[in-house]
Write a structure and sequence with these properties.
With 196 residues, the protein is an alpha/beta fold. It has a single domain, classed as Rossmann fold (3-Layer(aba) Sandwich), CATH 3.40.50. Helix content is 53%, strand content 14%. The protein has eight helices and five strands. Helix 6 links the parallel strand 3 and strand 4. Helix 1 packs across helix 8, helix 3 packs parallel to helix 8 and helix 5 packs parallel to helix 6.
């Protein structure tokens, strides 16, 4: 019989191994893109499906709330997963593959940033959103897993967790969210003036 302690040990080992594969230079580049968007008061959109939808919501919450300080501009960040009536209406009337790109048609502008969070990198709704963001001269950054899928070619910058394990990929995408949020909090608290 499989012992829980053995299972825990195995999962932790897989997680530890995947952490060692994170390309830190790519995380730094992603951070600089987001900081530039903040400094220039650009909008950041975040999207994902399933567990990645929860990460998208969490990231928008963390960047929007955990960087607040008196007399300082705020991150303009929005998860496109969070308006359930709109997501369900678009999915029902136009098809699930349109739920993000149709929202972006109302909102995205040149210089804005789209963060796509996807394990497989092959979700049609993510790919459509990334293609539309590119058409609108927005920057595509992505948190990916497995081999990156088709999203890899649409991303201007990406961080790939190169393992074939959804749980570990999703765990590390959340870790990356927390790294970026802590980085921004520390950098903003250090007193760098924001562009107005």
């Amino acid at each position: 019989m499989l012992q829980l302690t053995d299972f825990v040990s195995s999962y932790v080992d897989r997680l530890r191994g995947a952490i060692d594969l994170i390309p830190q230079d790519r995380v730094a580049t992603m951070g600089e893109i987001l900081y530039r968007a903040y400094r220039h008061n650009k909008q950041v959109f975040v999207v994902g499906n399933g567990g990645s939808a929860a990460t998208a919501s969490h990231m928008a919450c963390d960047l929007g709330k955990n960087t607040i300080s008196p007399n300082r501009q705020r991150f303009r960040v929005l998860s496109l997963n969070d308006n359930v009536p709109l997501v369900s209406a678009l999915g029902n009337d136009l098809g699930y593959e349109h739920i993000f790109s149709e929202q972006l048609k109302n909102l995205i502008r040149p210089g804005d940033v789209l963060i796509s969070i996807t394990g497989s990198g092959n979700s049609p709704n993510i790919l459509r959103a990334m293609a539309y963001a590119r058409e609108r001269a927005a920057t595509n950054i992505a948190l990916l897993g497995f081999d990156g899928g088709a999203a890899l070619k649409l991303a201007d910058e990406y961080v790939l967790v190169p393992v074939h394990d959804y749980g570990v990929v999703e765990d590390l995408h959340m870790v990356l969210n927390h790294i970026l949020t802590e980085y921004f909090r520390a950098r903003l608290d250090a007193g760098e003036p924001a562009l107005r």
